[in-house]
UniProtKB/TrEMBL annotation, chains A, B:
Pfam families: FTHFS. Its EC number is 6.3.4.3. It comes from Wohlfahrtiimonas larvae. Pathway: One-carbon metabolism; tetrahydrofolate interconversion. This is Formate--tetrahydrofolate ligase.
Length: 551, 551
């Protein structure tokens, strides 16, 4: 592998270096002026997966591998992925750069900081929190004299109705549920608070859904930070902090160009998790890529019930840009791991586990597009196993099924898959959304729930009250972003394979006014992961030459 | 003003672009391999000031102006400054880029993010906190089975003896005094905690005092995060997190090259505050600059009682690198503001306020070097006022006194000052420290206290107990870092001008084992500022073209 200077990668896709701001030799931010709305005619390939197991399906490897393979067979292709969060890097999962011959490089730069966007986002997010608590402090301190002294209107913040947590890009369990406000001095300013991981920030969702800097500015102005003593919204605009937050994100709006081990261009941008946010790279990154390449391969987080559903019903609804085909990634091992029968034989494991694959193919087909199954190959896979999966996939509605050997062989190892993808994209089928804007929130939630196989939705009293309030306030036209476990198609990580039929519980709802969706939380959804018993950070260090090891 | 590509700035000082990692067109990180120990023969000029007033003395403007002026008169000069913290940028003070014709540009890049070092530092710092609380959680959760399950020794963290706060680079008062640990679930992990501003982090002091990446790694290993149930230190090495923290800082060890409005090279690195930390740019930045230029102008935070004292007794003690002369910056307005007489006339104001200047000249002269007074000129200054200050300065031991008109005129406006500085540097006087390593901690503290004019040091019972414990544990050989208000030479911001004689109270001491000093806190020292009633963020926004305004 030989890394090329990033300007050479740009030249491959006719991207002028005038649009680049380099961050070292191998990464550059791309100016949004490079988006050519007329040239925007590339085809988008959406990569999703079966229900993920702790071992992972190699979805990023396959996404990168397909982009390399398309170039290998002579097409011009770019991959679009999210920036990895430091939480998993130092926690359990490790980096998110792909691997083997299908990796984004330099891997250390991708996994740590990159061009600083996540740090900027954390900073912009927390400025709003500092500003809100400072206003609470000064309004309490000066009481009736506040307006006279400051020239500002009283916001009358209800300290128990602050809905904007702080964020940090680490797995810091101890910050999930805290008390802030100078406890020792004055209980008046003390209130419960929380930190989420940055990937869960509404600001991260906003970055990924914005069309340009002005759109970002408008959306940030709309975010609801808290409610006042009369239950009215207090937004970032009300606090006059939206402009400064946008200034902090002025450069974060620009995606970053990198390359793969085969020098295929990769555009990295934003990083919303797919369990607690919408789980897709940015609209801007796709727009740039589609105006530069014939094929753009993008990855949606977790299984098709998670990132893929949100790609369509949130991201594509906002952008108007739809894929030409959907690739469902799985592995032989992962399919077997979905089997829940007692003491099965090897082939029985595959047969019963494949039901999960079948569900994901069916789920992907709801959106009206050709679905291809990609088996991320491992050395121990047998011909019989692969033949079984292929015939199962075709019987269950996939237009094709092919292995990807990209980890071991790079683009060449996924070249047959790439040819089949190109063919599938030629069908030019018209995509459709799961629900229209005009359905009410309960109808939208049921539409998604029914794709999981749920027969009923059970709202907690809190959820129902919030739902009715949101409808009354005119937010019923927004799409829903279901926050749930990725480990099951249902809400319950213990229910493997295909959980239907079941009742889907809704614990609570949250308005994400800036992002433009309603978060629907099923049970306790983790918005701040914790470090495990044997965290990855223990193995990470610098060596004698100053190189990073163990990442 | 025309900005030059950063490679052209590097060429001016014979710095090969092989050593640069560009971050946009106008900023580049400098590889430490560029340090040539043989070529390191430039002269260092240390810029300090009189006791600062809220209006400021223009110390950064003068620092930048002197570096421009040295180039104007034909010398090769570089300025070394700290990276601004976002706290003041969005709070009250605004950016720290200098101004007028003596500004570091692009100002927006300097003030926001730059090359991401402060963000990296915040992240590395908070990883240790997350790791420590996670270990507490797992040891509590698994009890006697912890070692069996994890293969790791029990650390037996005393949750009430955690001395490593978290940090955030904002003025967030509400995080000064918090409770963390999932309060709702299990009180066992709940404990008091705090956030400091990143500039107060021991890690920031370490970055500024490290000689290279390996030194940084060793120092990080030594930082004390908490004490165990038997009162023994738990370090970052014990928690096996020091390597990962260093990996996060792998690029932050490299200073950033920028330029002034007159294209003079500026090296920006680290950002410890001078009230709560040692208040100087990095040893590495000085090393690089001194191997590239004949003159290096560096700024120490706040008055000479703050950053300058720490420059000598902490930074120079560590590096072995001393200045050739000291510049004390003041303004007519600031000198007048130091007057505390009732109803004075204009000249009386100047006469009584000048005592503060006299004290700072005297204080600077303790270190054995020539002291020059620089008056940062304003349009309203009169010839009589300037003549008075000049004669006062000379009578009080300054080798010279000259105005700096760098704000209005750039290097030309400080060219006479620069000539006088060059002349003063030629004296080659030998610098001396205030105290030797072998003095005990009380003697060291008294040595600094007596320079303030204190006749006695009054230790709280807590301070005395910690002092004796530190001596007993063998930390008596470390230098002391006095944390106090910058608004007075004493510990009390209300005591203006020259406070002697007085009794200096010491509230508590803290070991900064990685940084290699003992923090001595006088009264309540603010380690997390708050946002004021009319914070600067209100005026910051992006305009229609996406440019940042109001910074």
């Amino acid at each position: 592998m030989k890394l090329l200077p990033i300007e050479e990668i740009a030249t491959k896709i006719n991207l002028s270096s005038d649009y680049l701001t380099s961050h070292g030799k191998y990464a550059a931010k791309i100016n949004l002026k490079s988006i050519d709305p007329i040239a925007k005619q590339g085809k988008l390939i959406l990569v999703t997966s079966t229900t993920p197991t702790p071992q992972g399906e190699g979805k990023t490897v396959t996404t990168i591998g397909i982009s390399e393979a398309l170039n290998y067979i002579g097409e011009k292709a770019i991959a679009c992925i999210r920036q990895p969060s430091l939480g998993p890097v130092f926690g359990q999962k490790g980096g998110a750069a792909g691997g083997g011959q299908a990796e984004v490089v330099p891997m250390e730069q991708l996994n740590l900081h990159l061009t600083g966007d996540i740090h900027a986002l954390t900073s912009a997010h927390n400025l709003a929190s500092a500003a809100l608590d400072a206003r609470l402090f000064h309004e309490n301190r000066l009481r009736d004299r506040f307006t006279e002294k400051s020239g500002l209107p009283r916001l009358n913040i209800d300290k128990n109705a602050i809905v904007w947590p702080r964020v940090v890009d680490h797995n810091d369990r101890a910050l999930r549920d805290i008390y802030v406000g100078k406890m020792a001095e004055n209980l008046e300013n003390v209130h419960p608070a929380a930190f989420d991981i940055t990937a869960a920030s509404e600001l991260m969702a906003i970055l990924a859904l914005s069309k340009n800097l002005q759109d970002l500015r408008q959306r940030i102005g709309k975010v609801v930070l808290a409610y006042d003593m009369n239950g009215r919204e207090i937004t970032a605009e009300d606090l006059e902090v939206a402009g400064a937050m946008t200034a902090i994100l002025q450069k974060a709006i620009e995606p970053t160009l990198m390359q793969t081990t085969e020098n295929t261009p990769v555009i990295v941008h934003a990083g919303p998790f797919a369990n607690i946010a919408h789980g897709n790279s940015s609209i801007i990154a796709d727009d740039i890529a589609l105006s530069l390449a014939d094929y753009v391969v993008t990855e949606a987080g977790f299984g098709s019930d998670m990132g893929m559903e949100k790609f369509f019903n949130i991201k594509a609804r906002t952008s108007g840009v739809f894929p030409s085909c959907i690739v469902v990634v799985s592995t032989v091992k992962s399919i077997k791991a979905n089997c829940v029968t007692d003491n099965p034989t090897a082939i029985e494991m595959l047969e019963c586990g494949a039901r999960n694959l079948g569900w994901h193919i069916h789920n992907a087909k709801r959106y009206g597009l050709p679905v291809i199954v990609a088996i991320n190959a491992f050395p121990n896979d047998t011909v019989e196993e692969l033949a079984f999966i292929r015939s199962f996939a075709l019987e269950n509605g996939a237009v094709d099924c092919e292995i990807s050997n990209a980890y071991a062989e790079g683009g060449k190892g996924a070249s047959i898959l790439a040819e089949k993808i190109v063919k599938a994209c030629e069908s030019d089928q018209k995509a459709q959304l799961l629900y229209g804007d005009d359905l009410n929130l309960q109808e939208k939630i049921f539409a998604v729930a029914s794709t999981y196989g749920a027969t009923e939705v059970d709202y907690s009293p809190e959820a129902m009250a919030i739902l009715q309030k949101l409808e009354a306030e005119g937010y019923g036209n927004l799409p829903v972003c279901i926050a749930k476990t990725p480990a099951s198609i249902s809400h319950d990580p213990k229910i493997k394979n295909v959980p239907a039929p079941f009742i889907l519980p809704v614990k609570t709802l949250q308005l994400a006014k800036g992002a433009g969706f309603i978060k629907v939380l099923l049970g306790d959804v983790m918005t701040m992961p914790g470090l495990g018993l044997n965290p990855a950070y223990r193995n990470i260090d610098i060596d004698e030459d100053g190189n990073i090891v163990g990442l």
